[in-house]
Amino acid sequence: MHSIASLQDYHDQYKKSIDQPEAFWSEIANEFTWRKKWDKVLAWDFNNADVKWFINGKLNITENCLDRHLATRANQTAIIWEPNNPAHEAKHITYKQLFEEVNRTANMLKANGVKKGDRVCIYLPMIPELAYVILACARIGAVHSVVFAGFSAKSVSDRVNDAGCKIVITSDGSYRGDKTINLKGIIDTALESCPDVSRVIVKEYIGKGAAIKEGRDVLWDDEIQKASAQCDAEEMDAEDMLFILYTSGSTGRPKGMVHTCGGYMVYTNYTFRTTFQYQEGQVYWCTADIGWITGHSYILYGPLSAGATTVMFEGVPSWPDWGRFWQAIERHKVNIFYTAPTAIRSLQQAPPEFVKRHDLSSLKVLGSVGEPINEEAWHWYDENIGKGKCPIIDTWWQTETGGFMIAPIANVTKLKPALATLPLPGVQPAVMNESGLEIQGNNIEGRLAIKFPWPSMARTIYGDHQRFKDTYFSTFPGKYFTGDGCKRDDEGYYRITGRVDDIIIVSGHNLGTAEIESAIDEHTAVCETAVVGFPHDIKGQGIYAFVICYDKPREEEKLRSEIKEKVSKIIGPIAKPDKIQFVSGLPKTRSGKIMRRILRKVAEGDTSNLGDTTTLLDPNVVDEIKAGAL
Ligand code: WTA
């Protein structure tokens, strides 16, 4: 098996991946089960945003995640499911059990009319059925589109309609700490505007007697009983769609990123094993929700294809108390722990006893993902959780990249606090200046682009290849543009500095400012809105909205809570603005463009130097905005 044993090894492999990318990746791809090997490793054209890997290769990813492990690890735990309530028992699902559950679920989907190529919307909490149904889709060649179960009805219906899903898999509800959320109610509302959905499969999880719409809804528990535990895997082309996952855009609606079978499998497996240096028998825990790419690639596909034991956590870090993560690490003797800076920052604020009362000695490697990790959080994580002996693997990547791009290799790459360090083999970053030229050398800063394809990159935006091209391949023609800014230090190490577009990252979740603005504008009192991010101690970035109302609001607090409610309803609670400032105008240029640079400064509380404001239509609004800053 391909591995990276030393720094020299990393450099050698990196060089090979650049000089002979096809040879490099075909060696790694050869370690998997293929029904038929590829004819050609790679064909690509970044000008047309066209990329294909392992051309004419045939496979099924579930044969690699499940079947091939049966001979050697049937009774090994594949998934440890840790429930919301620590007083309840965790569930250990072996590879054999997982295989059977997935097969059964696949047959259940088939019996409910799902065929190869159909899109299946999945709106479930972090329960084992979520893993079963994702893999079941992959087994029969259906395309899963998982929607994070914290999104609103409106977000669900937009995604269902965009992907043309005819079936939705959900549950009666979910637990989140001491709260219960009625997921089925959200689905019922969502489906009022999804005329093409003819079937809903409902897992009764929190109770019995879910509201059932006759003819459309069936119960998971009834259906699964009729299904057999043997379902032959569908033969998929390497470039057939595996899933769609939506991510926010800097303008317009969320984008349905399309990932395909072959390259995604090879890359998520390779990066999981090498970056974390996963060793046979270790217990690995990624705290993300499977509704995000991190959960897709690094709770399910990467670890399972590697035969790992992966923890799936239903709960939240703060309930019943701030020791929840540490308790679960102790309970399951977790060796590799992978979480987000926002979680680290909130845990850091809790009294230290919550950490101290648990035995964390099983930990070997720590990981971070979702946003830049600040140095303070990095050191706290290192000292208190890793006890100074666990490398922190800061993984920079995106929904679009499918897998890790820039990250240290555990115990190989020398670390620097808060730096994502070096590109993984196969990844060719380019730092670009404002005029679109690649900046050479070190000690530089610019925009991060990637100049060569890697196997798990998204292939398109579902139903809109032009938007894919425009969003990612037009800023720097011939290169993939990430939307992030970065610095490259004197040793060639990368520090990601954050988004340079109108996407903000709130508690590790990508949100488009345009999306939030249009949700706020739905309030009848609101005339126009501009949203920017501002530094937030826990969330990384908070949401600051500048709102113009038709009439000067009389009860500002009441209106603020109505606006928050509106956003929560239209997008989901994660998109609620932290601060809402009512203004009478926005700083616009003569051509009508909002100068967000100024608003960002105000939101940051730094109004000492707002830069050039002479091009503004009405420079006076700036004084008013400054005076009313929150
Ligand atoms: C940011 C999550 C700095 C970045 C996997 C990226 C990071 C966006 C890091 C993608 C990191 C993610 N350091 N920034 N380690 N990881 N980001 O699509 O701005 O939810 O473009 O994918 O998160 O977020 P997404």
From TrEMBL:
Q: Which InterPro entries match?
A: Ac_CoA_lig, ACAS_N, AMP-bd_C, AMP-bd_C_sf, AMP-binding_CS, AMP-dep_synth/lig_dom, ANL_N_sf
Keyword Nucleotide-binding appears in the UniProt entry: yes
Keywords in alphabetical order = Acetylation, ATP-binding, Ligase, Nucleotide-binding
| The protein's enzyme class | ligase
> Which stretches make up the AMP-dependent synthetase/ligase domain?
67-453
Domain (Acetyl-coenzyme A synthetase N-terminal): residue spans on this chain: 10-65
Which Gene3D superfamilies does this entry report, sorted A to Z? Answer: 3.30.300.30, N-terminal domain of ligase-like
Q: Which residues form the AMP-binding enzyme C-terminal domain?
A: 515-593
Any Gene Ontology biological process: acetyl-CoA biosynthetic process from acetate
The terms under GO molecular function for this entry are: acetate-CoA ligase activity; AMP binding; ATP binding
Q: What is its EC number?
A: 6.2.1.1
State the Pfam families in the record.
ACAS_N, AMP-binding, AMP-binding_C
Quote the PANTHER family the UniProt record gives.
ACETYL-COENZYME A SYNTHETASE (PTHR24095), ACETYL-COENZYME A SYNTHETASE 1 (PTHR24095:SF14)
Q: Which family does it belong to?
A: Belongs to the ATP-dependent AMP-binding enzyme family.
Protein name, per record: Acetate--CoA ligase
Question: Which species does this protein come from?
Answer: Pseudochryseolinea flava
